[in-house]
């Protein structure tokens, strides 16, 4: 029996992206100089991946390449193998499905990006609605809300993903991982880029880092990369780019329901410290 489900209106988990079906990630052979951006979908993967790519290149004068060309579960192993070093890879795989060799002493570097799950939910709703060729989803926000909370979406539960990664990082102190958040990247972009460069051991030249910041800023990525996306992808992958858009979507009842689930699932985690819901937020 297959554990992969196909898309229906009550379940947005595609066979390809089911947690148990992100085949090829566990067995992917990593290289010591690889950098893998790891994030639950809609957490800023495109943004951080682009930063990494420019930092690795040491210049912002690089050809346009799509993030998905380095997405471990989206391309065949031969394509990944053909990429020249150092590779900038990315995946939405849960911790337990990551390439097993990341646990080795001399492994590649990971950048873990987290985002307020309420903003992730809004962003993911738009993703599911607008990427019609993948999902054919026409549900309303009120219908999507319980799907996200119960993990019936691609890559399954945000809560399980986040718990799994936090536990994985705790259990594997040798993991070379830099943790950042969508919110920190917004609030102090220059400093976050500098920290990322420090972690990667790439140029810390101030003018270069400023150039990276400019090139990866929302408007410039939307104008260049967004325009290049075929179908409606541009408007989905570079939709709004803001912190706190959830306030335009959540009703008071949804906010309360979310708080209750968040508290129950996440209490005691780092994500809880970061995003614990304050009533005055709403
Ligand atoms: P919104 O839908 O809230 O606008 P991912 O890359 O993981 O799929 O995440 C997509 C989200 O990141 C979208 O959020 C998108 O607009 C936002 N995003 C993409 N590039 C960005 C950038 N350069 N700066 C800020 N946000 C960006």
UniProtKB/TrEMBL annotation:
**Coiled-coil portions:** none
The cross-references to Gene3D superfamilies, in alphabetical order and at most eight, read:
P-loop containing nucleotide triphosphate hydrolases (3.40.50.300)
PANTHER family for the chain: SULFOTRANSFERASE SULT
Protein name as catalogued: Sulfotransferase family cytosolic 1b member 1
Q: Which UniProt keywords apply?
A: Transferase
The family line of this record is: Belongs to the sulfotransferase 1 family.
GO molecular function annotation:
sulfotransferase activity
């Amino acid at each position: 029996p297959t554990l992969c489900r196909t898309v229906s209106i009550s379940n947005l988990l595609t066979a390809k992206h089911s947690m148990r079906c992100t085949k090829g990630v566990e067995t992917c052979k990593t290289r010591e100089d690889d950098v893998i951006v790891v994030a639950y979908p809609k957490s800023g993967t495109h943004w951080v991946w682009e930063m990494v790519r420019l930092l690795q290149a040491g210049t912002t004068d690089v050809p346009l390449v799509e993030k998905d060309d380095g997405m471990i579960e989206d391309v065949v192993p031969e394509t990944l193998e053909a990429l020249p070093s150092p590779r900038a890879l990315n995946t939405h795989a849960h911790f337990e499905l990551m390439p097993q060799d990341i646990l080795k002493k001399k492994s590649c570097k990971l950048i873990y990006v987290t985002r307020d799950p309420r903003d992730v939910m809004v962003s993911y709703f738009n993703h599911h609605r607008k990427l019609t060729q993948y999902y054919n989803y026409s549900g309303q926000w009120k219908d999507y809300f319980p799907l996200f909370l119960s993990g019936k979406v691609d890559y399954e539960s945000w809560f399980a993903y986040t718990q799994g990664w936090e536990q994985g990082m705790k259990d594997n102190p040798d993991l070379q991982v830099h943790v950042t958040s969508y919110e920190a990247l917004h609030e102090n972009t220059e400093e976050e880029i500098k920290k990322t460069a420090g972690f990667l051991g790439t140029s810390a030249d101030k003018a270069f880092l400023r150039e990276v910041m400019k090139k990866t800023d929302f408007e410039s990525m939307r104008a260049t990369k967004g325009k290049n996306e075929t179908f409606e992808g541009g408007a989905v992958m570079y939709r709004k780019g803001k912190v706190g858009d959830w306030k335009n979507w959540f009703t008071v009842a949804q906010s309360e329901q979310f708080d209750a689930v968040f508290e129950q699932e996440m209490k005691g985690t780092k994500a809880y410290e970061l995003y614990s819901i304050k009533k005055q937020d709403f």
